[in-house]
TrEMBL record:
Residues 297-323 are annotated as: Disordered. This is DMT family transporter. It holds the Pfam family EamA. InterPro entries: Alkyne_AA_exporter (IPR052756), EamA_dom (IPR000620), EmrE-like (IPR037185). Residues 298-311 have a biased composition (Low complexity). Keywords: Membrane, Transmembrane, Transmembrane helix. GO terms for cellular component: membrane.
Length: 323
């Protein structure tokens, strides 16, 4: 789907943009909650608890909305996104952030949108419009600046960097896999079944979760529940809603708003005053996202998936008046 100029956006386009905004705000809050819950819960247990809460809530919404099982054509994308993004990504990120500082983790994980743009151009035929490439470059530079400003080189390991890189790869592959599934099923259905797949994949951590829940402080458990309810159940659904209405590359670039929001939220909620370098990096992230959302001079190629599932236009009826 080609981006429209600001004045030419339809209400549905603004709705998709608003859904993307909800996603990035909630994903930014997740970093604060993970920091709290991660002190009491190990990576696998935290991922399972978060996914279990998200699956339960999404299942209830599916019952209320009577969302059925996705058709067969959607299942390859649902399964891949469930295993890679909902499952492996969350465990790898939780584990990686224990091995490296937050700044290093942010720099490595933010390779994800770059990989999304490349994979979606290769596998989905979305192309690489110049505004998207320029915006990703500016935002990635901003993410690196934010990472450098808060990094602690004394708390880093090769294992942690590799785990964060694995998380970025799983995130990118999961998004690109989810995009075709959304051509066959609704956002709520795709999100619920993907979350359920991720939950099943994390079931080996059940014993650890039960053991740690008995010793965890209430605040850590409440943060885990929050992670499942909002950054997972709600944010992944609004993400899928927006992803179905734009390209995977542009949606990936939109997530560069997250580092800027994390800087502000850490300042407001954790009393962590950002330095000048963090503020510069945050501004670069926002500027890059704005550039990536611009319409290119020529129409971007449509996704093969969308084009393949678009019915041919009905023949126009002739009228006595000119067109």
């Amino acid at each position: 789907m080609t981006e429209l100029p600001e004045a030419g956006r339809r209400p549905a386009d603004w709705l998709a943009l608003g859904a993307a905004g909800v996603t990035v705000v909630l994903w930014a809050t997740a970093f604060v909650s993970i920091r709290s819950a991660g002190d009491a819960y190990s990576p696998g247990a935290l991922a399972l608890g978060r996914l279990a809460v998200g699956t339960l809530l999404l299942g209830l919404f599916c019952l209320v909305r009577r969302a059925g099982v996705p058709p067969r054509a959607a299942w390859p994308g649902v399964l891949l996104s469930g295993v890679l993004w909902f499952g492996l990504y969350m465990v790898a990120l939780n584990w990686g952030e224990r091995e490296v500082d937050a700044g290093t983790a942010a720099m490595v994980v933010n390779v994800g949108p770059v990989l999304i743009a490349l994979l979606s151009a290769w596998l989905l035929g979305e192309g690489l419009p110049r505004p998207l490439l320029a915006g990703i470059a500016v935002s990635f530079a901003g993410a690196v600046v934010v990472g450098i400003s808060v990094s602690d080189s004394s708390h880093a390991s090769a294992l942690g960097v590799l785990l964060c890189l694995l998380a970025a790869v799983c995130y990118a592959a999961g998004v690109v896999a989810q995009k075709p599934a959304l051509a066959h099923a609704g956002a709520l259905s795709v999100t619920f079944w993907g979350c359920l797949v991720g939950t099943v994949g994390c079931l080996p951590f059940t014993g650890v979760l039960v053991s740690e829940a008995g010793d965890a402080p209430l605040s850590a458990t409440l943060n885990m529940i929050y992670l499942g309810a909002f950054p997972t159940a709600l944010a992944f659904t609004t993400w899928a809603f927006a992803l179905a209405r734009t390209t995977a590359g542009r949606m990936g670039a939109t997530t560069y708003v997250v580092p800027a929001l994390v800087v502000v939220m850490s300042w407001a909620l954790l009393d962590e005053t950002p330095g000048a370098l963090s503020l510069v990096g945050g501004v670069l992230c926002l500027a890059g996202v704005a550039v990536s959302r611009r319409r290119s001079g020529r129409a971007a190629p449509r996704s093969r998936t969308v084009a393949a599932n678009t019915p041919p236009a009905a023949p126009r009826r002739r009228s006595g008046r000119g067109a």
